[in-house]
Amino acid sequence: MPPFDPAGRAMPDWQCVMILWGDKYGVDTVNRLVCAVAAHARKPPRFVLLTDRDRPGLDARIIARPIPEVWLGPEMLGTGCQAKLCLFDPGVVPDDLPAVYLDLDTVILGDVGAATGFLKPGGLMMLQSAVLPFGPLGRLASRLSAGNRYARGNSSVVIYHPADCGYIAARFLDLKRQYPTLGFPPMCADERFISWVAQKVVAAVPTSFAVKLPTEYMSRIAVLGYVWAALPWVRARRRRLVVVTLCGITVKPQFLLALPDNGRLTDRHGRTLIWSDAVMGHVKRAIIAYFAPSQPDRPPPGN
């Protein structure tokens, strides 16, 4: 049983961290994610939202923390999302518990808090996004190229301990004084910078836990979607998925829900998604349930 505070509330065991700036998303999106995470959590989470302003209507479980002004300049809020690096700014996220950061366009299928069990002391985990893998090969490439080549990740899901990662924000802000227009190549995007500065310790989030929908379910050869879905080990791994993130402008909920059964959607990289139970299995049904307009806060079915 978890410990309880004097008011009888279970003390949190981990933190679920989210970020919201601008007007692209509303509090309903944040609240829906909180409801889904809470519904599946086996250990009590603390919910932390980093935001650029007051957000009336937030779920009462959410602790809103202001994003420091240094991260809110116009050069930080563009396509590179450098403002997301406020995750690592000391004092912004409480540093007493490990944290799992989730993008808001994320579908929850299971216990997100289990991710903290993957984290090694002093480490950090991201979704793998390039062919060069995190680990010895990525570190070797970084050493041999003087940091010009390195394994890269995607920051839609980040597992970290705030007490261990303040150097990421500090290093970025130090470089920003030298490169105010963010002209140093690793500064072009938050995920590039995290991968570069934390290359010695960063590891990949297991693909049995979390995946990017485009990477997992889209292919330049459409028929491969059916082939992969039929492989027993792929089916078994996908049944264990906890997080599916809809990163990329093509696979946003409004486009997916508008597709007919067996409809197709192609992104700018030439990858095609087949909106079919045969290809996507339970994840298709989970996305529909999660984003159904009539049930905005209902978590999707489990595996």
Strand neighbour order, sheet with most strands:
3-2-1-4-7-6-8
Helical region count?
10
Helix content: 25-40%
Q: Give, in order, the helices and strands.
A: EHEEEEEHEHHEEHEHHEHEEHH
Radius of gyration: 19 Å
- N/C terminus separation: 25 Å
Beta-strand percent range: 15-25%
Ranges where pLDDT stays below 50 over 5 or more residues in a row are 294-303
Give a count of the beta strands, DSSP E runs of length 2 or more.
13
Whole-number average pLDDT?
A: 91
Shape: globular
Largest sheet, in brief, is:
7 strands, mixed
Q: Structural class given helices, strands, pairing?
A: alpha/beta
Written description of the protein model:
The chain starts with 13 loop residues before the first strand and ends in a 12-residue tail after the last helix. The model is unreliable at 294-303 (pLDDT under 50). The strands form three sheets. The chain has a seven-stranded mixed sheet, sandwiched between helices. The protein has a three-stranded mixed sheet with strand order 5-11-9. The protein has a three-stranded antiparallel sheet with strand order 10-13-12. With 303 residues, it is α/β, with parallel strands linked by helices. The protein has helices at residues 27-40, 136-144, 166-178, 190-197, 213-217, 224-230, 232-239, 253-257, 277-280, 282-291; strands at 14-20, 45-51, 62-66, 99-102, 106-108, 124-128, 153-160, 202-204, 210-212, 218-219, 243-245, 263-266, 272-275.
